[in-house]
Specification:
By secondary structure, the protein is mostly helical. Helix content is 59%, strand content 4%. A two-stranded antiparallel ribbon has the order 1-2. It has a two-stranded antiparallel sheet with strand order 3-4. The protein is elongated and about 65 Å long. The N and C termini lie far apart (89 Å).
């Protein structure tokens, strides 16, 4: 016998699941197109693992709902128990154990996947230390929640006893508190790491807004986790509505983890988005339409730009083996060009370090390093007359 509202529950949970699987599928397609199947990284395989737990989560939630519930009962429901209802609720109680385990594995798999992506982004930067701290806390949280689930009710088979005299075996009270503490604090820690990185990422403002919007969904995940515990622990709100909030929280976790990796696929399909929201700080459109003026003088000295904007003059007798062009003499140049108009070249020397993960858009290879204070070496451009 299904609980009231079964049709709406089924529609919501399977719609959330369908969207989640679509996002996961697109993410894997994008990653395989970019890296090849053999070169998939650990976060990609965690996503494949997440498919199993996410599917089990939605299936078990519906099994609990449509089996008539678990050993979580009101006094009136307990008084009205019949052998048939007892059998249904025993089955539902077993599915609750599966549901709780699937929820932990789904959410923590998503957390690990995001941390591996963060690790690639900040590799070699000072923020890498905070990623290590997050890894430790997320790992400790997973171990803590597993211990809480399997030690909360002893003997373990009391989890599906109908009725049960042990409050912890139907309420999961202690386990819910442990899971909430580790789950919410780890989400807050990951948001505190991600948002500053994204704010300093040098990409067009509209693209940055999309990324911030995706990661701000982490706030919804935290709110959903809080509401899940309210419906599980607060007596006036104790209902099976917590199943809805479990499904919502897990689904948004899946979306947030996989949506950023789809960006490269979106850019391949819609290449015009690469210029979407791009602005130029140095020149206006009218300035860019004007031809560059050559420097004054025929023997303009070529300078080398070093670190931190320092310059030094290049030697006058540059050899051809150094791949430099000789500056011709004034008389010889005048013989070929009586008007005295010289040929000018702009030469740009640049050394860039690619530190942006391929999971995120970047219009400048060293943009994140500049934004986060990483030292980089860039040589400027200069004009000289030939």
């Amino acid at each position: 016998m299904a609980l009231p509202g079964g049709g709406a529950f089924r529609a919501e949970t399977w719609t959330l699941y369908a969207v989640g699987m679509l996002v996961i599928g697109l993410r894997l397609v994008a990653r395989i197109r970019k890296r090849g199947f053999a070169s998939l990284q650990i976060d990609d395989w965690l996503t494949v693992n997440c498919i199993v737990w996410y599917t089990l989560l939605i299936v078990s939630a519906n099994q609990v709902f449509f089996s008539g519930g678990s050993n979580f009962m009101t006094p009136e429901e307990e008084a009205a128990l019949t052998p048939e209802i007892v059998e249904e609720r025993i089955a539902g109680s077993k599915w609750v154990v599966v549901f709780e385990e699937a929820m932990v594995c789904t959410v923590w798999t998503c957390k690990l996947g995001m941390l591996f992506i963060y690790q690639r982004i900040v590799q070699g930067l000072k923020q890498a230390k905070s990623i290590k701290i997050a890894f430790i806390w997320v790992g400790a949280g997973f171990i803590g929640t597993q211990l809480g689930l399997f030690l909360n009710c002893r003997p373990f088979h009391e989890y599906w006893a109908v009725p049960t005299a042990k409050t912890q075996c139907w309420s999961y009270f202690n386990y819910q508190i442990i899971e909430a503490c580790f789950n919410i604090t780890s989400d807050m820690l990951m948001l505190a790491i991600a948002i500053p990185i994204l704010l300093k990422l040098q990409v067009p403002i509209l693209q940055k807004g999309i990324l911030l919007g995706i990661f701000s969904m982490g706030i919804f995940i935290i709110l959903a986790a809080i509401l899940t515990k309210l419906y599980s622990l607060y007596p006036p709100l104790l209902t099976y509505a917590y199943l809805n909030w479990y499904a919502r929280e897990a689904s948004v976790c899946v979306y947030v983890t996989n949506l950023p990796s789809i960006w490269t696929l979106v850019l391949d399909i819609f290449p015009g988005l690469r210029r979407w929201g791009r602005t130029t700080n140095n020149h206006s459109s009218s300035d860019r339409s004007k031809p560059l003026k050559p420097p004054q003088g025929r023997n303009h000295e070529l300078q080398q730009f070093g670190k931190l904007g320092t310059t030094k003059a290049m030697p006058a007798n540059i050899g051809s083996t150094e791949s430099q062009e000789h500056i011709v003499g004034q008389q010889h140049a005048h013989a070929r060009n009586p008007s005295g108009f010289g040929i000018n070249k702009d030469v740009t020397f640049s050394v860039r370090r690619d530190s942006i993960s391929d999971d995120y858009p970047a219009t400048n290879n060293n943009s994140l390093e500049k934004g986060l204070g990483k030292n980089d070496t860039t040589y400027g451009s200069h004009s000289y007359a030939v």
